[in-house]
Amino acid sequence: MSAIALAQIFALLTAFGFAAGDTAVLFALRTSTPITGILTLSAITLLIYGPIALATYPVSEIGLQSFFIFLAAGIASPGLAGTFLYMSFRRIGLSRSITISSSAPLFTILFAVITLGERPTAGVYLGTLLIVAGVMVLAQEQRSHSKSLAEGKSVWHAFIFVILATIMFVLAAIFRKIGVALIPSLSVGLSISAMGGLLVVALWHPFLPKADRVRIARPALGFFIISGILSSSGHLAFFAALQRGPLSIVAPLAYTSPLFALVLAWLLIREEERLNARVVFGAILICAGAALVTMSRA
Predict the structure, then answer these.
(1) What span, in angstroms and rounded, lies between the C-alpha atoms of 52 and 288?
(2) Cis link prior to 78 (omega < 30° from 0)?
(3) How far apart are CA 194 and CA 198, in angstroms?
(4) Of 63, 107, 143, 276, which one has the greatest count of Cβ atoms within 10 A?
(5) Taking the mean position of all CA atoms in its chain, how far away is CA 186?
(6) Are 294 and 111 a contacting pair, CB within 8 Å?
(7) Are 12 and 257 in contact (CB under 8 A)?
(8) Span 191-239, pLDDT tens digits
(9) Distance CA 254, CA 14 (A)
(10) pTM of the model
(11) Would you tell me how many other CB atoms lie within 10 Å of the CB of residue 178?
């Protein structure tokens, strides 16, 4: 099997891991807070991959540049991106949050053009248009839905957290792509990134309102642990994909997670995630655009 094919498989595993982890988090957030999710994800990642990193890779070979690149990646995601995304779950729901954040490949490719010198084909531009169209369809659906949730509030105000999360996801992808070229060890990259997530928790926690601070409630703990395992596995698959293929191929497939998230939401939380034809159509447009970008770049 070619390296590109393996990269695509790992990217799809990334999408499933993220979608499943985010679904578990939604259950946990019923009795806990977004910052608690970041804490448990980062801690579980460090507990799983930290010992492996120490046993398999000499610490002396980790340069400062490599360390800070992976640290910045962890600060961006899961640190800030995860916090913003979990906040978005509370405001506009799982399926809408994940679907909008899946527009990240659009901006990731733009950054790849600038920083990595890639040259998009016509298929990439067409795929980009499909992604943007899908986001617009979803935003239109949220506009009508928001009338029953909050009269007089701007629709885009509800989207601010998922937009910020998307920006952080893009920056994290760029940092990780640069980082895996400097340090070949996946466990080292994951461990340092987890430190970045923990740093966000430590610095942000004192400034949060009391209701939004770390709160480990017993009903939520199990869901957070499940989410941490699934999401950290997704991050591992993402690192493995980046090692084997270009960012412009990996990113679109990794962000097909809306398809998995929509199915999981429909199966598990039908009462809260009211899927309709417009939501599904928006998700299909976004994922079709991501797939077209992938095929065009392959």
Answers:
(1) 38
(2) yes
(3) 6
(4) 107
(5) 18
(6) no
(7) no
(8) 999 999 999 999 989 988 888 889 988 889 999 999 999 999 999 999 9
(9) 6
(10) 0.81
(11) 19
